[in-house]
Every structure is written in C-alpha cells, then in structure tokens.
Design brief:
Helix content is 42%, strand content 21%. By secondary structure, the protein is an alpha/beta fold. The chain folds into 3 domains: 85 residues, Winged helix-like DNA-binding domain superfamily/Winged helix DNA-binding domain (Arc Repressor Mutant, subunit A); 103 residues, D-Maltodextrin-Binding Protein, domain 2, CATH 3.40.190.10; 101 residues, 3-Layer(aba) Sandwich (D-Maltodextrin-Binding Protein, domain 2), CATH 3.40.190. A hairpin with a 2-residue loop joins strand 1 and strand 2. Helix 1 packs across helix 3. It is globular and about 75 Å long.
C-alpha cells in the first residue's frame, strides 16, 4: 500500500477546504475547529513539499498543484461514495432533500407537497430552494428538479437524468390590469409595464417580441427587473404589470381567475422538466416514490400545454 494513503484524513480535509475555498466553511462541514483545518493543511503541504492554497481576501484559492490534487481527490472520494451506495441501500422510510428553483419550490412544490405526505407519511421531504445549479455529489441533496430546453445539457455519467414533462411560457397579468391597459395583442404589450427576470437570457421579453416579428430595436421597453419569478408573480397579482411565466407555475392562479393570459401567443421557449439524482444513491426506493408522485401530479396541473 502506498504510504501516502496514511494522509487520508488530511486529503479529505483538503477536498472540503478546496471545494469551499474557505477553512472556516470546511471546519463547519467537518465539525472541527478552523485551527484544526489549518493544521491539517500545513501538515499536508509539508508532506508534499508544495503550497496548495494562496490567500486572496477572504478566500483560499488553489495553486496549480492544489488544483491538480483537488481534481483527483474530488474524483476519488466520489468513487468511494458510489461504491458505498452500491452496497448500502436505505429503507423506504426516511428523508429526501430536494432542490429546485426558488419559483418552482414556492409556487408549485410547497403548495402541493402536503398531498405527498398524505400518501407517504413515512417519507419526509426537505426543500432547498436555489437558483444555482447545486451539486449532488456532496451528499446534502438527493434529487434536483431542473428545467432546460434540452436534455443533453444535463448529461453526466454519474447521474441519472429523467425527463418527466414539458411546459410552455406565456404572458400573464391580473384581469383588472388587462382591462385597464386594453391588452389584446402583442403590440399592446409594448406600451405597458413588463415584469422581467434578472439574468434570463432565453425566456425573456426581447425573444418574445422577436418571435412575434415585432422590431423593438428603436423602442425602449418599460421593464421592471426582479430577481425571482415569485416576485414577478406578486407584482402581476397586484395588477402592476405583465410577467412571462411557466404555465405550470401559474396554473392555480389561472384556474382561480386571479391571472389571465392577455395575449394567446406563447413564448417560443418550452421548458423540459427533469429529475436528476445520483446513479448509485442508497435512497433509490424513496426517490422512485417521490418521482412517480411528482410526475403524476404535474401531469394533472398542466393546463396550458400546446
């Protein structure tokens, strides 16, 4: 056996510190002191005879040798976890942590989750809402629900990606706002308040007008930019503008009449819904029940498919 494998604890500590770019965050994850993390890194650097980190402001950035070692450690520990998962399968009862966008968690998942608990009282679901692509390799998250216009963008040999639905994007506003602003055509939207999602490069208003063959190069859109879809929804419900919304997200508001689709022309983008989870997750039984339930439930709510 290579004697350097005796440094396994140091290497594990290094992988965590490198992933977080922080000794303090590594200490939190490993339940040890920051001083202990610092000591282990000094020992590892001394044994290797190279510097692995360099400090920049509050971050601990990897050096060239550090990046090389981190890539190998990340892959190695991932393989160990995969092996453990293959020989250790958890029972049906237990918990799952699910991540998805803030909008999907707030507007669809949480309002419907009680039905899952009624059907599977022994499976607890924890929700981690995030607009970032969270890693599934750290052991903190079991299932990601992700929306792309292409399944190939999600391919990863260590993950299972299952497409389970597709939904469109439509303009939506309160019925009072539609009446007040006399919104009946795409051109009518040019002069009204538009609610736009910050950083959205595909399902945005510019692409919507371009798809409708309306030249806006010489027009200044009256846009209010918000950081999340649930903020746009709040404004739309209050009668403050028109949002572009995934039809599955606003289905309940369309059914209740709180929102209407003022112009019956959808956005050209259609989002494909995907489950993503570790290929060798020990929680396969729980994952299967949750995925089956969500697939069935979302199919019931798809009210505006075209």
């Amino acid at each position: 056996m290579d004697k350097r494998l005796r440094w396994l604890n140091n290497l594990l500590c290094f992988e965590v510190a490198a992933r977080h770019q922080s000794y303090s965050k590594a200490a939190e994850e490993l339940y040890i002191s920051q001083a202990a993390v610092s000591q282990q890194m000094r020992q590892l650097e001394s044994n290797l005879g190279v510097s692995l980190f360099r400090r920049q402001a509050r971050k601990m950035l990897l050096t060239g040798p550090g990046r090389t070692l981190f890539a190998s450690c990340e892959k190695g520990f991932s393989e160990i976890v995969n092996g453990l998962n293959q020989v250790h399968e958890e029972p049906l009862e237990g918990s799952l942590t699910v991540t998805s966008t803030q909008a999907f968690c707030a507007l669809w998942l949480m309002p419907n989750l009680f039905e899952f608990f009624n059907e599977y009282p022994n499976i607890n679901i924890n929700i981690q809402a995030s607009n970032r692509i969270e890693s599934l390799h750290n052991g903190d998250i079991d299932i990601a629900i992700r929306f792309y216009n292409s399944t190939t963008a999600l391919q990863d040999d260590s993950l299972i990606t299952e497409r389970f639905g597709e939904n469109g994007v439509v303009p939506a506003c309160s019925p009072e706002f539609q009446t007040q602003m006399q919104l009946h055509s795409v051109k009518d939207l040019l002069g009204t308040r538009l609610l736009a999602l910050a950083g959205e490069e595909r399902a945005n208003w510019e692409a919507y007008f371009e798809h409708s063959k309306i030249n806006i190069s010489n027009k200044k859109l009256r846009k209010t930019v918000v950081s999340s879809s649930d903020l746009a929804l709040s404004a739309a419900l209050a009668g403050h503008g028109v949002m572009l919304a995934s039809d599955i997200m606003i289905g309940q508001y369309l059914k209740s009449g709180q929102l209407v689709v003022p112009v019956d022309i959808p956005h050209p983008i259609r989002w494909k819904s995907h489950f993503v989870y570790l290929k060798n997750s020990p929680k396969q039984k729980r994952i299967a029940h949750f995925c089956n339930w969500l697939t069935k439930k979302m199919a019931e709510h798809e009210v505006l498919q075209t």
